[in-house]
Amino acid sequence: MTVYSGPVFEMAANQFNVIANYLEIPMDERDRLLMPKRAVTVSCPIHRDDGTTAVFEGYRVQHHLTLGPTKGGTRFAPTVDIGEVAALAIWMSWKCALAGLPYGGAKGGVNVDLSKISRRELEALSRRYMQEMIPFVGPHTDVMAPDMGTNEQVMAWFMDTYSMYQGQTVTEIVTGKPVSSGGTLGRREATGRGVAHLAKRVMKELSINLSGSTAVVQGFGNVGSYAALDLHHFGLKVIAVSDHTGALFDERGLDIPALMRHAATHGSIAGFSNQLQFDPAQILTLPCEVLVPAALERVIDAGVAEKLRCRVLAEGANGPTTPDADLVLEKRQDEVFLIPDILCNSGGVVVSYFEWVQDLQQLFWEEEEVTRREYQILDRAFDQMLVRARADKVPHRTAAMAIGVEKVRAAKNTRGLFP
Ligand code: GLU
User: Fold this and answer.
1) pLDDT, tens digit, for every residue of 120-156?
2) Quick one: which of 73, 135, 262, 330 has the fewest CB in 10 Å?
3) Rounded to an integer, what distance in angstroms lies between the CA atom of residue 151 and that of residue 409?
4) Ligand 1 centroid vs 263 CA: distance in angstroms?
5) What is the largest CA-CA distance in the chain?
6) Ligand 1 atom closest to Cα of 88?
7) 80: exposed, middle or buried (Cβ count in 10 Å: 0-12, 13-18, 19+)
8) In a 3-state reduction of DSSP, which class is residue 213?
9) How far is the CA of 191 from the centre of ligand 1 (A)?
10) Residue 327 to residue 319: CA distance in whole angstroms
């Protein structure tokens, strides 16, 4: 029992134990690798529009500081708790290490229902959360970014709040900022773009034609929408899409650019079409070439895994597949090609790294360079995962996580234990 105990943390711990067994890591070394270095809980009081005061609980978990600053997003959602944030921070560590970034993992969050607060209240909450975190973050300590429920505007408020306290503009304190405030070209698209790029690579490996193939995307936020857009541009038919308001299905392929314009103005896919409405509970088990879960964690359990009818499972979300489901997928390896989350959605943090580098150097790159370098890192990590999985006959998730865990372990062991 730890302060993090809960279903999402248990899942991250179970996954880690699978890797630790495979790598034969001694028992007394495991907690040092798994347990977060720091966790901060803060109360964020704000004035509501009606004049009352409300307090929101906020968290930040920094998993390890061995390779450099910690890095990771901030989630605003009503389900957020310290255990979920810790699990997400741990996944960030393996993700950054697999991609070869000089970071440990972190994640933050505020427990808030965004449908119940106004834009002014959101700004107050974002600023207060960052203000409470100032003693614990910094461009060389912990660098925040967007995650579920946060966006470029929230990052601009975070950066502005931190900068006002420093008395100077410190763009490198957060990534995922608007390009007008020190952000990089290509960050907004980066995560979804990476998901689609890797899905395309796998389709080539499997000799599946892009044109006429079908894709299904669960979640139409930043990750799902840009993944859908690129798959659409590659010639796939995106036959179904869902978000928290419902789902749409069209066997001829949805008009993704039009759906993105609709979601940008209305905040969701609701109201796009009455004829195309579909049961969101069935979206994951539709037959398709590419399935992209890009919403919440733990949506694919063992039961769903048995029923998956996709050829490629491209995990856009963090932790969408439970360890029980992994056991099912292990048996179905020849039917379903898994691109595990810590590889599949790592384009986001890779381009966040580029943003941080550009901010530190005050030297900005063309979008073409950002995307070319993003694909280069994703392709290298993909190759490493595949070589390892084939050589050791282990599932893709095991191979990807093992590469990440090994890098963190090597750094910890060579640095030694202080004092
Ligand atoms: N929140 C994203 C993730 O889970 C991005 C993190 C970042 O850019 O630092 O990978």
Assistant:
1) 999 999 999 999 999 999 999 999 999 999 999 999 9
2) 135
3) 33
4) 22
5) 66
6) 4
7) buried
8) coil
9) 8
10) 15
All structural domains of the chain, each given as residue ranges with its CATH number in brackets, are 36-179 (3.40.50.10860), 188-345 (3.40.50.720)
User: What is the C-alpha to C-alpha distance for residues 149 and 114, in angstroms, rounded to an integer?
Assistant: 8
Backbone angles phi, psi at 46, to 5 degrees: -140, 155
- The pTM (predicted TM-score) of the whole model is 0.97
Fill in the DSSP letter of residue 260: H
pLDDT in tens, 328-363: 999 999 999 999 999 999 999 999 999 999 999 999
Residue where the block lists tokens 């020849």: 334
- Residue recorded with tokens 């969701």: 268
Let me know: does 379 contact 201? Beta carbons within 8 Å.
yes
* CA 253 – ligand 1 centroid, Å: 29
Locate the DSSP E strands across 196-321: 214-218, 237-243, 246-249, 277-278, 288-293, 310-314
Residue 321 pLDDT: 98
Determine the Cα–Cα distance for residues 248 and 263; give it in Å rounded to an integer: 13
Residues 6+ apart with CB under 8 A from 341: 91, 95, 315, 316, 317, 318, 319, 320, 321
Name the burial class of residue 304, with classes exposed (0-12), middle (13-18) and buried (19+) by CB atoms within 10 angstroms of its CB: middle
Catalytic residue among 37, 71, 95, 107: 107
Query: Residues with beta carbon inside 6 Å of ligand 1?
Result: 71-73, 145, 147, 175-176, 318, 345, 348-349, 352
Q: What is the best residue among 349, 355, 370, 374 to mutate for testing ligand 1's pocket, by most ligand atoms within 8 Å of CB?
A: 349
Q: How far is the CA of 311 from the centre of ligand 1 (A)?
A: 26
What are the CA-CA distances from residue 338 to residues 328, 398, 418 (Å)?
12, 11, 39
Length of the chain: 419
β-strand 288-293 against 310-314: which pairing, if any? parallel
Peptide bond into 257 cis (omega under 30): no
| Known catalytic membership, residue 177 | no
CB contact at 8 A, 134 and 162: yes
The token pair at 96 is: 């950054």
Angle formed at CA 55 by CA 8 and CA 161, multiple of 5 degrees = 90
